[in-house]
Amino acid sequence: MMRLRAGPMLAAMALAWLALPQEAPAAIAQRALLLEIDGVIGPPIADYIAHEVGVARPDQVRVIIMRMNTPGGLDTSMRQIISAILASPVPVVTYVAPNGARAASAGTYIAYASAIAAMAPGTNIGAATPVQLGGNPLLPSDEGQKKEQKPQESKPGEPADAEARKAVNDAIAYIRSLAALNGRNADWAAEAVRSAVSVPASEALSLHVIDTIADDVPDLLRKIDGRTVMVAGKPQHLATADLDVVAVPPDWRTELLVLVTNPNVAFILLLIGVYGLIFEFLNPGAVAPGLIGAISLLVALYALAFVPINYIGAALVLLGVALMVAEAHIGAFGALGVGGIAAFVIGSLMMFPTRAPGFGLSGGIVAGAAIGSAALLLLVLAALLRSRRRPVVTGSEALIGVEGETVSWQDGEGRVRVQGEIWLARSDAPLEVGNHVKIVGREGLVLRVQRTQPA
Hints:
Blueprint: H1 2-29, E1 31-38, H2 43-55, E2 63-69, H3 75-87, E3 92-96, E4 102-104, H4 106-113, E5 116-119, E6 124-126, H5 162-182, H6 186-195, E7 198-200, H7 201-206, E8 212-213, H8 217-224, E9 228-231, E10 234-237, E11 244-247, H9 252-260, H10 263-282, H11 288-304, H12 311-330, H13 335-351, H14 363-389, E12 403-410, E13 413-418, E14 421-426, E15 436-443, E16 446-451
Parallel strand pairs: 1-2, 1-11, 2-3, 3-5, 4-6, 5-8, 14-16
Antiparallel strand pairs: 6-7, 9-10, 12-13, 12-15, 13-14, 15-16
């Protein structure tokens, strides 16, 4: 009897155990993933967003929320994020927040690529005109410009330059295609690219640029609950009202790369690296300056590979440093130093394009670096001048002006005792033994002396 009863009991327990794993994914799926874009959109942020969006699965995450506050960023990084959004099987919501935030430039494209675009009160979106990092910014033409700068074939609001028009038209086509995916206002999007217009949250909602306005993330989840969106080309019903929000902020590696790729930090690391290696070369064996300089220079070069720079400006910075070092080493009394400081300042201002959103170099950093380099140069020049004025203590010149005493003398020549040593000496004036003399010249191993008054 016991064996007959044990069989059904074991079967029931096995069925219950098999049922447990099926409930776990359902619990896991009742969550929303919250990602953060706060600041310039560059390679580190793009990698962070693309990775988190790429690993999210529908059986684990119901919706991905990107809380965004950005002035814009690099085109390549923006397209990497958009590609990840469009390929994701999980619906992505772009939420411009908190109050006072903005989704400018690249942020506008990302919002248009998302299944849901939302904004917090007091935020704005737009100003999506592309910027040509290698030259002049691709800004819309101004009505006050001269007529010769606006060829008749260019449309109103478009830049006159052919390359600028090409980039703007490409950006318009791109954002129109994103608008078509989610049924948003394509005409306003084109105007945001062509004329760099920007609108607040309330106007963006009325223009159908965004889908909703929400005070915070829980309010956002309640307002988008029950909507149907297109995800990977297929309609998907959103059930978000009771989701748990799980924040996944950037990890320490991403934060470090964001810090390093900041143009101000990269510029400082570049200077530390160059000056450290120069000091090591001039003082072999110091070790610490060379080690710190090598590490700083390698990190700076890594950072500069990811940010837009003007290589002519970078070359001028290095030329300026080289001229200042040459001034300190050669001692041209300011000529090379002034030229070096001028090249350094001009190159620093040119090195990072100031119109690229978030990638301009701070004027305070440039001024501080230039003043620091000039102060270092002046210290070296002052030390050089002091060393030149200091009496010579070695070599043949060290004996000039030293006094001695005649030991023997006959017919215009003899021997003198100088600093405890006996030297052959000659003089144009007659001398006697015991006379005090001063050395006025040297011819090989023979000193030229003249008589001085006895001490």
